[in-house]
Automatic annotation (TrEMBL):
Residues 163-204 form the Pyridoxine 5'-phosphate oxidase dimerisation C-terminal domain. It comes from Nocardiopsis terrae. Its cofactor is FMN. This is Pyridoxine/pyridoxamine 5'-phosphate oxidase. Keywords: Flavoprotein, FMN, Oxidoreductase, Pyridoxine biosynthesis. Catalyzes the oxidation of either pyridoxine 5'-phosphate (PNP) or pyridoxamine 5'-phosphate (PMP) into pyridoxal 5'-phosphate (PLP). The gene is pdxH.
Amino acid sequence: MGEPLRRSGLADLPMTQFHLWFDEACESGLAEPNAMVLSSVEPSGMPRSRTVLMKGYDSSGLRFFTNYTSRKARALDADPRTCVVFPWHAIRRQVLFAGRVERLGDEENDLYFASRPRGSQLGAWASERQSRPVADRAELDRLFHEFDSVWAADESIPRPAYWGGFRLFPSEVEFWQGGEDRMHDRFRYLLVEDGGWEIERLAP
């Protein structure tokens, strides 16, 4: 990871470059390399950030899942502009995506929900009031066990209507690689009007 980052070594498309770096982050042994810090803007204008897990990506962008009634989802529905950062500190790299989000369709949401472990599926049902105050941990545990008794151990659990995903369509992607003496390498991909990408080096 110590080699300087050069323009000649970058892929022409940001998602291709991300795929290369993400594979290297996974191979490095990082804990949860798919963890990313997601920022949104509240209706009041106050920014808010939290860590979520990326659950897939392709040439169009990134996917993540949440409760659609949560604070972050309500903020994203009101203002779909967002920014995420992958903070791969241990390998001295980070990747920033800025763009807009759109909700995923029912088919994609159902497919991913069905792939989740049973406990995670039950947790989605028990956390219907995500981001809202609860009395105590006992209330959460009670809800979890109540839903656990609804479906038999071998029975499929349906996806709650309030649970689903978003796709982030980036218009800007920045790759940051740490260097000695704060001489970091930073390259930014910017989406241009014809749908192509312009790449520029940024000062550290």
